Amino acid sequence: MIELAEIRSFMRQKAEDERTRSSVTVEGATIEDALAQATIELGLPLRKIEYELIEQGARGVFGMGKKPVKILAYEAKAAAPQQEGTGAEADSEFEDVETPVDMDGQVFVRLAPEGVMLKVFPPEGNGRRVTEKMALESLEKRGITDFDRNLVKKIVRLADGESVWVGNFEHNPLNDSMLSVDIRDNEMSAFVVIAPPGPGGSDLAAPAILGLLKANGVIHGINEDLLLDLENMPVYNTPVCVAKGTSPVPGKNARITYNFELDRHTKELKERNGRVDFKEMNFILNVVEGQVLAKKIPPDEGTPGRTVLGKLLPTRAGTDIKFEVGRNVRLAENGATAVAEINGQVIMDGDRINVEPIYVVEGDVNLKSGGNVVFLGTVIVKGSVADGFKVKAAGNIEVEGNVGKADLDSEGDIIVRQGINGKTEGAIRAAKGVWAKFIENSNIVAGEIVFASDGIINSNVDSNKMIISEGKRATIVGGRLRATEEVRAKTFGSPTGSETIIEVGYDPKSSSRMVELEEALQELRNDLEDIERNLATLESLKKAKGGLPEDKEGYYGELQEKKAELTGSKEELEREQEELREHMSSLLVAGKVSASSRIYPGVKVIIKDASLKVRTEFRAITLINDNHDITPVKYEEMKEDMASRKPKGMEAGE
Q: CA 49 to CA 43: how far, in whole Å?
């Protein structure tokens, strides 16, 4: 049997196809049945349809002589014509639009035991109102002649949707509209079939339909809005589903939600200036200590169902799962939350979550390995770091091969088993030490020690403690090396007199800042000199002519403001410069430069506030600052045993 909702769905689907049909001829057991068929074929709501009776029809006797009702149905004329060129189409209750819907007012006549009931609904949007004529025609169609016309007029004017008594009719209870209830689908649906009233019979009201449903045991899932529709616009001799049971919903199984990407190879490629940067793939899933990695969502009990007769339908609870974690991960919140215990990379081992403090690159760091490496632990590179790539680690960085024109940044030590050749552009930064076989054409910054067994060539090296080159070829030649405590090597410079600058006795950061301050101050002084010259010219002009033109007066004011601004900036930088001088002179570190073999001419040595340009070769010597002069003394062996501090494997090749 067709449900009312299915009829409406069919009407929605057919509305557009049937729009051009101006009229249809339909049949039905009653006029109401014929109109219901017309709504389907025309694709219009009932209120939009007008009809003409072609054949009255007959009930017949015992099935003999029965004739259907035949009508000609067509779309009612709109209240106002559409303007040309707007492309507007007739309103349809089946169109899903967000704009307000234009809907005509509606009038319904219901015959009840207490009398004739009239209900008028107001229009919506730009829909047309119900007129008195329309109400009178509706009463006439039901054969009602005994009614209060003034009351009808008032009801039409108010149009409040309330059902109001307007008159009487000769009521014959034997011909009242009848309703039957049919329970189907294992008590999961309830249908009603409404028989039309006979002469003098009354219509069914929504409360009456609801009462009959409950009398038949239907108490759950009743669509009361649909009952109101059946009251206003009955559907006769057609089963209509008015109640549906609720199916049980099984409980969801326990599941785990992860706060990281399980498939690390689904990274989104980043673009720079319209080009994909394959170096930034970084497949490492970094996590920090205390970070929530995953949560277990427990199973739920599900929701029981209920038939239209109110019978409870049991459900099935979801199943639980085991939640286990691996290394460096703990379970919190009653075993439902996985939390990282250390910084590192998160790795799935089967169903277990692990956090590893070490990330290993099995070969070289290049495009093939996934590009740049950023890791919250220690990074071990089994091969080399290719030109143009970066490695950044919260722990140590260990490279078994070489480092080229690359950027390495570590919060621990950087250990390069072979050598570093930055080709003047590579940058190495370590919070602790930098250890390498050789350093060439590189820029190095270390918080503690820089150690190169085979020498440092043409490099800029800064260390907050010591720079040391010890080994068979331990030579420091070219570049600029700055250390707070000591710079030590077998040989400094070369026989060709290559310029090599060695600075000790103060921290390199302060020294760099001093250089920056001096450059900035010199630029400010130059700008102030230019302003002073311009001001002097304008003042001479003003004195000679007794005043300045308006444009030059404005320029004069701007120069004075700029002078005041630059003077303030200059004074601020000079204060910072003086504070740095006091800090550098207050350092207790003596500073020294030691050469176990020789220092060649051409080497420039700066120890605190003293400097020396080496002009004659020194052999096995230590240079110190003695009363603001650099003085050579007998070579001093290093007090600290560097062998105990060297990373394992760094002794090879010395």
A: 10
